[in-house]
Design goal:
Region (Disordered): 67-91
Shape: globular
Distance between the termini: 19 Å
Largest sheet: 3 strands, antiparallel
Radius of gyration: 13 Å
Strand content: 15-25%
Number of helices: 3
Order of helices and strands: EHEEHEEH
């Protein structure tokens, strides 16, 4: 089955959490580190900034692996009508808790 490619922060947080992957920067490039891999670990904000700066998205494989790919037409999530800071925070918390649902 093909990989799910996304640049949506909520989806990345959800899928990375389920796969036990953590954000990392290696020589300034974003990476997802597996359990026990501590090289270059960073917070999510520097990871997402580097991902955007390099025009990349994350491809999540069915086996739990992930790789970075060119963004292309990967779905992203921006603030929609009426979605300010509070609604964005709620969306983040839903993703963090595993309550994320894929966009239609």
């Amino acid at each position: 089955m093909p990989a799910t490619v996304t640049a949506d922060r909520g989806e990345i947080l959800h899928r990375a959490g389920r796969a036990h992957l953590s954000p990392a920067l290696r020589d300034g490039a974003p990476a997802l580190a597996g359990h026990g891999d501590t090289a270059g670990r960073c917070g999510w904000e520097p990871f997402f900034r580097a991902l955007g700066d390099r025009g990349l998205a994350v491809a999540f494989e069915e086996d739990g692996g992930a790789r970075l790919v060119p963004r292309g037409d990967a779905p992203t999530h921006g603030a929609g009508p009426g979605e300010g800071g509070v609604e964005g925070a709620r969306r983040f918390l839903r993703a963090l808790r595993g309550e994320w649902t894929p966009p239609a």
